[in-house]
Every structure is written in C-alpha cells, then in structure tokens.
C-alpha cells in the first residue's frame, strides 16, 4: 500500500491558506475536506490539491508530512508556484 503527503490550498479574505496531511486515498481525502468532514481546520472552505508526493510506507509519509508542515518557506514556494500557473 502506498501513502501520499499532500498540500491543499484555499483563498480566504484575499489570503492563501494551506493545509498539509497524509493519506492512502487522495481522492477520498480531498472530498472529505471539501464536504466539511475532513480536519477541523479545513471546514468551510473549498480546497484545491496543489502538491502531492507518494511514499511506500506510512511511517515515511508521516515523517515527510511533519517536515513539510514545519517548512513554511517550502510551503510558501509551492503555493506561489501553483497560483502563478493559474493566472
């Protein structure tokens, strides 16, 4: 079984907010976030998947999720790169 570390983003009051997580079913997890049944932080917003990376073990995915959550510079770079593409 493979696991994914993902970054989703949403616009709130002209600010881009993001959320990092891990899952073994990316489509289902994104659907949960957008239906208000995901993490408490993600309720009430429409989220777009802007980054994903596949890992072969849950432990490795959890470790990389933690690193991405703490690396605000990398998260900002990913957000800017994604939103530059859609302009």
How would you describe the overall organization of this protein?
By secondary structure, the chain is an alpha+beta fold. The longest helix is centred in the C-terminal third of the chain and has 14 residues, at 72-85. It has helices at 26-34, 58-70, 72-85, and strands at residues 3-12, 15-23, 48-55. A three-stranded antiparallel beta sheet has the order 2-1-3. The radius of gyration is 13 Å and the shape is globular. The chain has three helices and three strands. 41% of the residues lie in helices and 31% in strands. The chain has one domain (3-85): 3-Layer(aba) Sandwich (GIY-YIG endonuclease). The N and C termini lie far apart (36 Å). A hairpin with a 2-residue loop joins β1 and β2.
- In the CATH classification, which architecture applies? 3-Layer(aba) Sandwich
Order of helices and strands: EEHEHH
Strand order of the largest sheet: 2-1-3
The biggest beta sheet reads: 3 strands, antiparallel
- Count of DSSP H/I helices: 3
**Approximate helicity band:** 40-55%
What structural class do helix, strand and pairing data support? alpha+beta
Strand portion: 25-35%
| Count of discrete domains | 1
Cα-atom Rg, whole angstroms? 13 Å
Shape: globular
| Low-confidence segments | none
What is the number of strand segments? 3
The CATH topology corresponds to GIY-YIG endonuclease
- Summarize model confidence as the mean pLDDT: 92
**CATH class type:** Alpha Beta
Distance between the termini: 36 Å
């Amino acid at each position: 079984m493979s696991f994914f570390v993902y970054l989703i983003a949403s616009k709130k009051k002209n600010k881009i907010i993001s959320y990092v997580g891990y899952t073994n079913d990316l489509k289902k997890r994104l659907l949960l976030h957008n239906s208000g049944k995901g993490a408490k932080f993600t309720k009430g917003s429409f989220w777009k998947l802007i980054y994903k990376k596949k890992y072969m073990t849950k432990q490795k995915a959890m470790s990389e999720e933690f690193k991405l959550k703490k690396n605000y510079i990398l998260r900002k770079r990913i957000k800017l790169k994604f939103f530059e593409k859609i302009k």
